[in-house]
Amino acid sequence: MRALALMAKDLLQILKDWKSAVFLIAMPLTFTLFFGFVTAGNFQASRLKVGWIDEDAASEAEGLGQALFDLAALNPTLQVERLDAARAAKAEALVREGRFAAVARVPAGFAAAALGAAPLPLQILAQPAATEGRAASTALRSAATRVLGAARAAVLSADSAAVAHPFPSAEARAQFVREQLGEALKAWGSPRVVLRSRTVAAVERAGGFLQSSPGMMVQFAIYSLITSAMTIVLERKSRALRRLLSTTLPRAAIVGGHLGAMFVVVFLQQALLAACGQWLFRVDYLHAPLATLLMMASLGVWAACLGLLIGALARSEQHVIIYSLAAMFILCSLGGAWFPLDVAGGTFARIGSFTPSAWAMEGLQNIVLRGLGLASVLRPALGLLACGAGFFVLAAWRFRFE
Amino acid sequence: MKLLAIARKDIAHQFRSAFALFMMLGAPLLVTGLMHLAFGGAGREKAPAAARMRVVVADLDRPDPRTGTALGRLFVEQLRSPELAGLLEVRTVAEEEAARLAVDRRQAGAAVIIPAGFSAAALGQGAAPGSPVEVELYRDPTLTLGPALLTSLLDSFLDGVTGARVAAVLAAHSAGASGEDHGGPSAGQALGQAAQEAAARYAAWSAQAETVRVAAPGARRANERELQEILRAVMASMLLFFVFFTGGGAAESLVIEREQGTLARLASTPTRAGTILAGKALATLLVLTAQVVVLLAASGMLFGISWGRPGPLAAATFPLVIGAAGFGLMLMSFVRSSRQAGLVLGVGLSLTGMLGGLFTNFIPGLPPLFDKVGLAVPQGWAARLWSLALSGAGLREMLPPAAVLTAIGAACFAVGAVLMGRRRA
User: Fold this and answer.
1) pLDDT digit string (tens) for A262-319?
2) Among A41, A254, B27, B100, which is 20 to 30 Å from B45 by CA?
3) Interface contact A149-B346, CB threshold 8 A
4) A195/B137 Cβ within 8 A
5) Between B310-333 and B395-424, two packed helices, what is the crossing angle to 10 degrees?
């Protein structure tokens, strides 16, 4: 019972400090809102700006340049804009400054080469490191492939016609090729086979917070340890821990009381973030309530044990901040809270998959991203609890009361 | 001389604090180091391969009755080619539901379902069916690279198939229109042969044709690898964020000295208030400059990041240092005690850093509004300035954001100095 009293004291101490509300609630909500708004969902809705420079006047007669422009403009992910001479001269700067995702340049001789032996490629200026640059390049590649493919089909058609009935003149052949080009472009407009990309129904219905909500829950479960572990360090410095030893309270009860308070803080934080995720950000935690509860509890246990370990090792408030921040940086990056592990190198991803933060992300993503239930979170939850037990043993071994 | 003595004392105090050193140097290098481990490092020739993705294919296709071609099987063979062996692990199943279930159960990252009649529809020369035949890619929503690669492969394959069919149809029509009207099986065979030849020639052409050529802006950076760009962007963001943090932390010393009474004792000496402030400002500027230099050098040595020409970097560093020092002083001038300082530093700088785009410069397609919102805080101007410096922009291009950032820093410094002076009084 006295351990509970100690726990209640810690909780009161934390909750009475208004700064705790900022660190524990306001910051994670703000980060979730911000990152959820800018990632996935929303950015797919906004079209990528692409600049267009046509240096092939001859293509106007063939219609190839216009056909290519029209195809690119029809792409729902692109917003294509012709650049005048002044802006065309600053194309590199426009891409560098991010005003355009890419600038496409139809080189001189494009149409003639397309109808000849070797086509000239469409020149694309884009930032290779920027995903929007790559997305714009992919969309433009598709348009260029269709137009150049149509031109090639028209040429092959003329070759085939000429076998039985040679053209009387080059102009007659050129006229025939132009007609076939129109037919080919029309045929490309109605492909017989298309690609349809799907994912689980839960994701397709939801908005852009499916990565940021669980990611920020994991990140701030670790970040909030600063508040919890700081209590232990301050009590040690003020010798309150030493005074507690002079009471009849067992050492285990003292440690347990502090641990319990840390667990409650993290659990309440998770509950609040899950509730906000459910009702504000349309992240469906409640479709598997038991699974969500189990993940919150196991994440709370693991984070509390980590906080106890930090409190045991740290000698000052600044040490608490350093250890907590280092733990947050390492575990969040390795665990996939900041970016999906599949975009990292294979070794990094394999190492990351063994971290408790990765298990936490896996459990939460199984619920909100994959739409799975209780069975899918058993393994991650057990992993978190086992890791928490390990941290607890270490903390108990290294814990100093003075 | 007093100014220099005050500056020397503050500099020594900063560099003796383990916490300050961690926040100045350790934290940004740690984060960038983690990114370096994640993305393979910029200095090495060959980046580590991305994790292999398991793919399940349900090939329900049957060979086209006319040509005997089984496009589904061809695609599966392409996925199993040696070039893709390091990226994809492919297995086939008999039913589409089994394929989707494998993804739902996390046994595979993606499933490709090739429907029955795919080859017949793709290669058919008759009237088009009511709606196109769909090849379905069912993907794990938590994965990005693997599904993107599969999408690219599928798009390319389907474009090739469609292109070959268009070529075949046109060739058959033109051969039929221009040839003698024999009718009968031999005419049909001739048309079929014309179509097949055209399709084969198209396929050979599409396998080697270069339809686009992508280049990065800035000729001198044409050979730089994408991973180095990512690392440089991460390190630049961390540098900016922690320089602003150090600027605030340096100003926090004023609050602590006020609490401890040393500021009042200093004021009781013949030293003018302006000298004290100038000394502390000089210390902050020197510490921040040293931080930038050390971070650039250390990241270059540890992670092989190439920062480009020193001229633009130097031109970007001076306004950054002014902006960070001034903004930090202004933030601390609103604080009454050192306990509040932690909150203001942590929360205030995190929020302004977020608004300034320091945490989101990798995220694609941000609405234009975010660029504008970012310019409401000095970190946004710093991010814009350093982005220009790192992308090879000229000094003329860098001048406007540099001037704005310097002006913001100076204005913040003036406001902070006035408010600090009032609190001291």
Assistant:
1) 899 899 999 988 998 888 888 889 989 999 999 999 999 999 999 999 998 988 888 8
2) B27
3) no
4) yes
5) 20
